[in-house]
Amino acid sequence: MPERVHQRTRNDHASEVAEDYVESIAETIANNGVCRSVDLVNHFAVTHATVNNTITRLQRDGLVTTQPYQPIELTPKGKRLATAARKRHEIVQAFLEAIGVSPQTAAIDSEGIEHHVSKETLQAMKKILDKGWPS
């Protein structure tokens, strides 16, 4: 059992950056109409090289498309991943706020938790948010 637990954590970490990037790309496109590398550099406070390496990996994985000096666009697969990540984030943040965590702390904490929460736990959180606490 411990190996399975650790393997899931390793898998979660592997997808965490991709989820953060596609979520940020989707949000930037929604707010600005386009997403450029500099937007991600500023958002994540990383170097252009880091963004370029990550975008190359996201292209390889079929999540984004771009050309040199052109905006970054999400593929349908990237859009699905961004939507799923955003929904998980919103559920976790709302749940934390529902149990009394301040909105500021819930926003920060949900950013990490969202990548590691299981489907079962996420469904339980959503059920409580939708129906209230079990008696």
Automatic annotation (TrEMBL):
Pfam families per the UniProt record, alphabetical: Fe_dep_repr_C (PF02742), Fe_dep_repress (PF01325)
HTH dtxR-type domain segment(s): 14-75
Cellular localization per UniProt: Cytoplasm
Alphabetically ordered keywords of this record: Activator, Cytoplasm, DNA-binding, Manganese, Repressor, Transcription, Transcription regulation
InterPro entries: DtxR_MntR_Metal-Reg (IPR050536), Fe_dep_repressor (IPR001367), Fe_dep_repressor_sf (IPR036421), HTH_DTXR (IPR022687), Iron_dep_repressor (IPR022689), WH-like_DNA-bd_sf (IPR036388), WH_DNA-bd_sf (IPR036390)
Keyword set includes Nucleus: no
Tagged with keyword DNA-binding: yes
Record SUPFAM superfamilies: Iron-dependent repressor protein, dimerization domain, Winged helix' DNA-binding domain
Major subcellular site: cytoplasm
Family: Belongs to the DtxR/MntR family.
Subunit structure: Homodimer.
Function: In the presence of manganese, represses expression of mntH and mntS. Up-regulates expression of mntP.
The name this protein goes by in its record: Transcriptional regulator MntR
Organism: Neorhodopirellula lusitana
